[in-house]
From TrEMBL:
This is thiopurine S-methyltransferase. It catalyses: S-adenosyl-L-methionine + a thiopurine = S-adenosyl-L-homocysteine + a thiopurine S-methylether. It comes from Regulus satrapa. Pfam families: TPMT. InterPro entries: SAM-dependent_MTases_sf, Thiopurine_S-MeTrfase, TPMT. It comes from the Eukaryota. Its EC number is 2.1.1.67. Its main location: cytoplasm. GO terms for molecular function: thiopurine S-methyltransferase activity. S-adenosyl-L-methionine binds at residues 16-27, 56, 77, 121-122, 139. One of its GO terms (cellular component) is cytoplasm. GO terms for biological process: methylation. Belongs to the class I-like SAM-binding methyltransferase superfamily. TPMT family.
Amino acid sequence: SDVGSQKERVVTEEEWLEKWEMGNIGFHKEQEHPLLQKYLDVLLNGGSGLRIFFPLCGKAVEMKWLADMGHSVVGVEISEQAVKDFFSEHSLPYCEEPVPEISGAKMFQSTSGNISLYCCSIYDLSSSIVGKFDGVWDRGALVAVNPCDRQRYASLMINLVEKNSSYLLVTVSYDPNKHKGPPFYVPEPEIKSLFG
């Protein structure tokens, strides 16, 4: 199908921040995602105490769910409001500190230490800052990234994962001529070319 109408679309960081400010967050779900529940064993691959990355995490409830199972969760989100909402909605005490390597960035960490959320652009992250991950739960990140940034996004994600990691990716299928996105339509052949 033709994705021409979406190819040029760009959603700015300001637009994402405005969505959070206005409460226009229909993409946020109050329950653990059924596909994560169904494929949890694939993500965890028999491991315990894994490091799991949530790109463009928002205030995803699955972060606490996985942390409660004993995993270490790291997320990145442009909206400080989303990050603070996550901690307050789960009544989790946290501390906030600057990220020296990234100008203006902050890291919010649960006092238990097993949830660390970076408030910055995902493209400012690198494995030297956040380390590498055993698993990735990409529920709405690839489909939210501007089409022109997909290659950059995929390269970063590949750089952030360990060799034997699991990457769970949720996409949406629809006629891209009828919806401008986000979420954007990412055809399967493109996913294969991005991630191999």
